[in-house]
Amino acid sequence: MDVITSASPSNRLLDSLPEDERLCFLADCETVDLEFGRMVAQPGESMTHALFPLDCLISLIATLESGGRLEVAMAGNEGMVGISLMLGAQKSSLQALAQGAGQVLCIPSSCFQDHLKRSPELEVVMKRYLNVLMSQISRSAVCAHFHGVEARLARWLLMTHDRTRGDEMHITHEFLSGMLGVRRAGVTKAAKALQSRGLIDYQRGRITVLERPGLDEASCNCYIADREIYARMREQVA
Question: Which UniProt keywords apply (predicted)?
Fold first, then answer.
């Protein structure tokens, strides 16, 4: 999935709207800079805004009271954060964390919901994205249960690489451990295995993708399934 393609950052969901609808929506948005590690939503807290990433990456994370967590979806410029607002839910059920620094379009929740009421085109686009997001969340749950850490790490790196500029990612052991829901030792073992095959360069706090086709082969088939459902959505909104 070639998510980021243009020099001028934009959001693909909004780009799929008719021009007059898109401009009307953008008039109520504010461009906000997100730094790496910024928390933009917490479970149980009210969602004051809907976010549409331009050139940043946001992880959606399920958390446990014990402190455990697992990334269940991610949103780059092909998606948004706050989709449950279209269902009338005002509180977040997931944690949303800026995994990659960049900019987002930010619109107040009430304003977003008003646009949904006035724009059938926006409602259709959001429903299609909701279907994609539900598929990604369910796929992540199955993947975490049935697939090995090495294959899951390859999938995660591919999904992140799709949504970022460049091959280098600044990621810590602790961060990857939380995203994959495994111990740090498991992350280290999996990363070293991918590195030994020449697919990535793995240094402390940094991973560089060296051989993308090899990562495709190392990943589980969940990555292909993710790409296919995004492709179907793009065909529908084209």
Answer: DNA-binding, Transcription, Transcription regulation
